[in-house]
Amino acid sequence: MAETKNTPVTVLGLGAMGQALAATLLRGGHPTTVWNRTPGKDTELIAAGAVGAATAAEAVEADGPVIVVLFDHASVHAILDPLAGKLSGRQVINLTSTAPEQARELAAWAAGHGIDYLDGGIMAVPSMIGQPGASILYSGSRAVYDKHRETLELLAAAEYFGDDAGLASTYDFALLAGMYAMFGGFMHGAAMMRSVGVSAGAFADRAASWVTAMAQMLPAYGRIIDGGDYTSPIQSLDFHKAALDAITRATRDAGVAVDFVAPIKNLIDRQVADGHGSMEFARTIEELV
């Protein structure tokens, strides 16, 4: 049976993300119990109508699903292991950032204690929760997802990827890898522009437009990779090697470290040295697997 708007929810962990989730639940009409290991982070939530629990054990006495948003995988076990008996027969939604194998381990742990487990990867910063553009990716228990989908959609656009509890976090971390590479590239470029007196803010506007335009190439790269044919390049690895050689020189001339560009340069150099210079840049994925 699907939940009602008044389904109570417990939130364990009141970092910036936990606070945003709990505040959104309250605004959505859900009785919300909150707990945090460090006291004092629940003040505004209690003022808004949340029930503050003194301990995690007290928090999970409340009815409804338990949303866990802690620091890391070890924190989840540290808090939930002593509560396994109390959580038996309950539904746990873990939104802590955990690696895929850690998510699968938690799912197995939960199953062993009679806990219905759903894992989620949050594709948003705290200020985006409850707003357009935020999404949370889920995998694990379909029953938990279906029963609480209305609540999950209140927090962010929700998408379910199947019963493999590690699949959502695989998507999550793969997307985050792309994000960090993008931000790293921006910082590298901003450092180069600083050497000629251009502010990071001024460079950011131009960089955002450029990155948006280049992102349109991703579907084409996906098709090339899935097809496995790298023999008809638009721009070959030889071309990209020359480009990265020039970028590296310009970087050093600007007095900037090459830490961000060196890994991709090394991947391209290796492929060219192995005789793949005439092939498509997308072949680089084969060096990673």
Question: What topology emerges from the helices and strands here?
Answer:
Elements: E1 9-12, H1 16-27, E2 32-35, H2 43-47, E3 51-52, H3 56-59, E4 66-68, H4 73-80, H5 84-87, E5 91-94, H6 100-112, E6 116-123, E7 135-140, H7 142-147, H8 149-155, E8 157-160, H9 167-194, H10 200-215, H11 218-227, H12 237-253, H13 262-273
Parallel strand pairs: 1-2, 1-4, 2-3, 4-5, 5-6, 7-8
Antiparallel strand pairs: 6-7
Helix pairs in contact: 9-10, 12-13
Domain NADPH-dependent reductive aminase-like C-terminal: 164-288
Family: Belongs to the HIBADH-related family.
GO molecular function, one term: NADP binding
Keywords:
single chain, 289 residues, alpha/beta, Rossmann fold, N-(1-d-carboxylethyl)-l-norvaline Dehydrogenase, domain 2, 2 domains, eight-stranded mixed beta sheet, 8 strands, elongated
